[in-house]
Design goal:
The protein is an alpha+beta fold. It contains 1 helix and 5 strands. It has one domain. A hairpin with a 5-residue loop joins strand 3 and strand 4.
């Protein structure tokens, strides 16, 4: 009976350790500044990198069919064409 209790106690401690390691997700966010006379927009990446494992990249889509990939916390700028 003692061996069974010790095994169960060890399992509970192991499960508690797993639950204590909470994984936080990434949070994507940005701010932007518009230079209207020149049709330029500067995007500042204000995202937060969580604790999930893996490689991160930022994928920017500017709404006019053009996109760009940058580092995970890197900002960018875009020039909008006037038709």
């Amino acid at each position: 009976m003692r061996k069974l209790y010790a095994l169960l106690a060890g399992l509970l401690v192991s499960l508690a350790s797993i639950n204590a390691e909470t994984v936080t997700p990434d949070v994507a966010n940005f701010i932007f500044v518009v230079d209207a006379p020149n049709n330029n927009v500067v995007f500042t990446n204000t995202s937060i990198i969580g604790s999930e494992p893996g490689v991160r990249k930022a994928f920017w889509s500017f709404g006019n069919g053009i996109g760009q990939m940058t580092g995970p916390l890197q900002g960018t700028q875009h020039h909008y064409q006037i038709f």
